[in-house]
Amino acid sequence: MRNQRTLTDLPLEVLDLIFKNLRNLRDKLRLAQVHEYLGQAFSYHSGSDYRKFSPKIHFPVRLYRVLLAECGPSIVEFTCGSDTWSDLLAKSIAKNCPNLESVNISVTLRNSNSVHSFLLNMAKSLISVELKLNDSCQSPRILNAVAELKNLRKLLYEGYIDRGVNQLHKLVALEELRLDYQGRGYRCRAVNLLQICGQMTNLRCLTVSNICINPPDGFHPMIWPNLKDFKMQNCEISTVLPDCPKLKTLYIKFCKCRIRGYVCSFILKNGKNIEEIDESCEPAPFDGPSFLQVIRSCQKLQLFSTPMGGIRIYQAFVTSLVDILKVNAATRKEPFELILYCRDKLRWLRRFLQRTSYPEVIHTLYLYKF
Q: Which InterPro entries does the record associate with it (predicted)?
């Protein structure tokens, strides 16, 4: 027949209906790879469906490469576990996904070299990187590659940390940084945090776990001008921290401070805008008078979680606490919440609270698991 028609003669709108009636992604990709025009039709059909791309285990890599070839420019997020990582897949992403901005990758000893190359290949577009290294992966090449991602605004790194972490000072555009040391045989890892973050003037959120914050080796600015959220867990504080004039949230969980009275003085110095504090430190950072001083100085404070270690609960103390909260009430958005990690102290506080003139100014809770 002279006017014989094929699928490639159909308009994209009709091919879209055909793709909608195919049973699964495998069938769609098999059809898409038959002809260049059918690949374009698959891209038209998919729209922004693959904006977030996460490969599944046991799915053929050759078919994923078809998907990336057709839909690569629409992909901005890539999440991949260690069991689905493929060197061929990574190369295909680097080739076809010029707008990729965010990656979340599980790194093992087996794929560490491939991940290293992938990060360097995507250095121009990446602004957010989350990496989780398993126990067997101690490759310094990963941190070397991360340090070259000059446009990075968010970095979440969990796993073994070596001296390569000092190179992160190059990431001056960072707005969010999380370092979670996971290593065998050490509770904490010494990290030159002040030197690393010294030039990160845009840093807004800093979270560190299982590290020892030591005095810096050289000069560094003694201010983190835009830091709003500062979280430390299972850390050792052995040096004075930079000032944080915009600080809103402070978590110091299961930490040890080697400078007597420093945690309290840090809060008093930077408490103007603080809205939430969660502390469980050794030694206890407050006694009765200094605790009341913190409540008085941090006028925007809305939530305080603490074991109240080293603080004796008695009527005059609770009455003073209520009086301070009454004065500060106008500057808080919500009622003040005090969460205690000690049941006995909570029981005594509530008993004395009922004898004050304005007990509703404070809401108390007991948290068993913290």
A: LRR_dom_sf
